[in-house]
# Entry
Amino acid sequence: MEDNEIIQRYHSAGIKIAEKKSKSVTKITKKMNLKPKKVHRKHSDTLASIMTTSTTKIKSSSKSQELTSTGIGIARELSSLFVELDQISNSKERASRLFEWLIEPVTTKEFFSEMWEKKPAIISRAMADYHKTLFSTEEFDRILKEECVLFNVNLDVTSYFNGKKENHNIPGRAYPVVVWDFYKNGCSLRMLNPQAFSLNLWKVMSILQEFFGSMVGANIYLTPPGTQGFAPHYDDIEAFVLQLEGSKYWRIYNPRTEGEFLPQVSSVNLTEEDLGKPVLEVVLEPGDLLYFPRGFIHQASCLPTTHSLHVTISTYQKHTWGNLLKKILPAALEGALQDDVEFRQGLPLNYLEYTGVQHCEKVNAQRKKFIKKINSLIGRLQAYAGIDAAVDQKAKEFMHDCLPPVLSKDEIACSVHGAPTRWENGKPRDVLLDMKGDTEIRMLRSNIARLFSEDNRILLSYTVENSRIYHEVEPQSIEIDPELADGMEYLLCAYPEFKTIRSIPCADLEEKVSLASALFERGLVITKKPLSSMPEDQ
# Structure
């Protein structure tokens, strides 16, 4: 494809969406003169917590569902599942397999047809060790000792007594002696962004985000026996509650109104007077899973005889048709105003005399004509709906939201992380890697990067340099030379297949190797086999 055709294709898509400009952009040109990119970090106190807990068990109610697993079939403990996942080369298949494990014995098809965004469901497995290696109170204690955990940023201390929720956070670092004293006095502990400290949680969340195509978050909740840490409320996320230790009594309530079903924002703390009759009451045991959609009110309390530790995995926050339309419609209207004179014609002189709330119950020819005109213009907006450009902007936001990938040993060996380069005898050795036309490469993950247009430039947004802490770094992008855009598209769309560098649609072998080398050095592609170094004199 000619350069001007590529520029026009991406520009025509990109100009339909007005977004905040990307920062920290390096350009990939034919010569691949790459320069280090500055990472802009935000203060940790701006980080967002995106989830809360909920759990549900089932009585004989059409509003919820209960399933029991005997451990037969695909069920296995997480530690053995990790071994299996590392053997799955295709990241989409790996993500699907992890989700199967999460909801076993329910099938993925059954879950999305009968439960997803519809009703709570509880999966009781009678397998106490099912989630055991995901997180533990021992790891909670280790993190407090070894990591710089801050109140308000990484940890919340709360209590709920006599219908009142209180926050007991203090300034500064959450030292173990202080945190455990709060706990002994009946306070619940909520660890925010635990994936920043826990490798297993990071791995699970980074895989699941590829399954959902949406940010995946997590909170850890540790509650003392006989207490409750949070008031009844509903959330704006799809919640998967995994019981890790102890037991917890959950009550789930239907959304109170149609407007609270699948809400865009979470509720304030509710009172008992705000609640109706629970549609689900259940005691979660280790190995159990509770799912409930956005908008379902929930509260949970610990039994008098045991503590409770659970993790809530969340997703689909503001990930709706309506949120996509928020990007499409303003841009469509802007395009219509530029191209269609009818959108720029003036309003009728006397339109205020028959429109507005004070005239809404009146029926006359002028009002009917006015409404008909509005409906006609709205219909014509469809021609200006930049759907692909809007989706690209959603994908760009997703790239920023994502956790960086956790690489397997094989992926490390075949990526820039496994390059044999080292310092030896006073100088760097094995710097030149043997990348040539027959070398086979592919993108590291299915959703590791995304092409989009901005300010007449073609940019590649990617996730490999993201932080394990939500939005700690600015969005990362590389500018792609128009002559290399076809080659970049080819590699993105070829996943999960490995392709020879020679097959990349660029002008000559030098450009093909340059593109492949630049992507390899960014950690965006892996080779089919580990690269060896070239002799120093070449």
In short: The chain has three domains: 73-315, 321-385, 388-527. Residues 457 and 479 are 7 Å apart (CA to CA). The first strand starts at residue 25 and ends at 28. Residues 73-315 form a domain with the Jelly Rolls fold (CATH 2.60.120.650).
